[in-house]
């Protein structure tokens, strides 16, 4: 069953990306590769995505960010903030495509994820996507600067 994707603008659609089958069969269309499958990137006929987990950190691995349309970052647990750091690092490395948060993602975390440049989210199983979409704009003024807040004084030295 396909996942439902929530975008930062509140729109909702079905996930168009598929993973490589357990038997190694490459699906037609848009494909989400694991880091261990990047050698098969050229075989993808549609859009190219990469799933990053804590085991495949961009701090320890070099990814072909200029060849990817989407990078999905897995949040293993609510108390694990590495996904936020991974998102900021990938943007600094030049990734301009869609950043998607997956895993332990729910309404209360979306504001923080948007602030570090996530574009879309697949919510944790059992969470209401419509409720989460309604809460996307609960906070309009940030308490502290982020990559989404341009020219914060600590970033510009002013």
> Which CATH top level class fits?
Alpha Beta
Q: Could you give the order of the helices and strands?
A: EEEEEHEHEHH
What percent of the residues sit in helical stretches (DSSP H or I)? 10-25%
In CATH terms, what is the fold-level topology? Rossmann fold
The parts where pLDDT drops under 50 for at least 5 residues are 149-158
How many strands?
Answer: 7
Tally of distinct domains: 1
Largest sheet: 7 strands, mixed
Number of helices: 4
Radius of gyration computed on alpha carbons: 16 Å
Question: Structural class given helices, strands, pairing?
Answer: alpha/beta
Q: Looking at the structure, what is the overall shape?
A: globular
Strand content: 15-25%
Distance between the termini: 51 Å
Mean pLDDT: 86
In CATH terms, what is the architecture?
3-Layer(aba) Sandwich
Strand order of the largest sheet: 2-1-7-6-5-4-3
Organism: Alkanindiges hydrocarboniclasticus
Protein name: DUF934 domain-containing protein
InterPro entries: UCP030820
Pfam families: DUF934
Plain-language structure description:
With 158 residues, this protein is α/β, with parallel strands linked by helices. It has one domain: Rossmann fold, CATH 3.40.50. 19% of the residues lie in helices and 19% in strands. The protein contains 4 helices and 7 strands. It has a 7-stranded mixed sheet with strand order 2-1-7-6-5-4-3. The radius of gyration is 16 Å and the shape is globular. The N and C termini lie far apart (51 Å).
């Amino acid at each position: 069953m396909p996942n439902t994707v929530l975008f930062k603008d509140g729109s909702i659609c079905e996930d168009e990306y598929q993973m490589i089958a357990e038997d190694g069969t490459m699906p037609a269309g848009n494909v989400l590769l694991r880091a261990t499958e990047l050698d098969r990137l050229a075989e993808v006929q549609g859009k190219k995505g990469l799933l990053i987990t804590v085991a495949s950190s961009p701090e320890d691995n070099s990814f072909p960010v200029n060849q990817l349309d989407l990078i999905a970052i897995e949040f293993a647990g609510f108390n694990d903030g590495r996904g936020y750091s991974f998102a900021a690092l990938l943007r600094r490395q030049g990734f301009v495509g869609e950043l998607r948060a997956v895993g332990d993602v729910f309404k209360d975390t979306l504001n923080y994820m948007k602030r570090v440049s996530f574009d879309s989210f697949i919510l944790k199983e059992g969470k209401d996507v419509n409720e989460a979409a309604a809460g996307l704009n609960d906070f309009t003024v940030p308490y502290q600067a982020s990559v989404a807040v341009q020219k914060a004084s600590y970033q510009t030295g002013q």
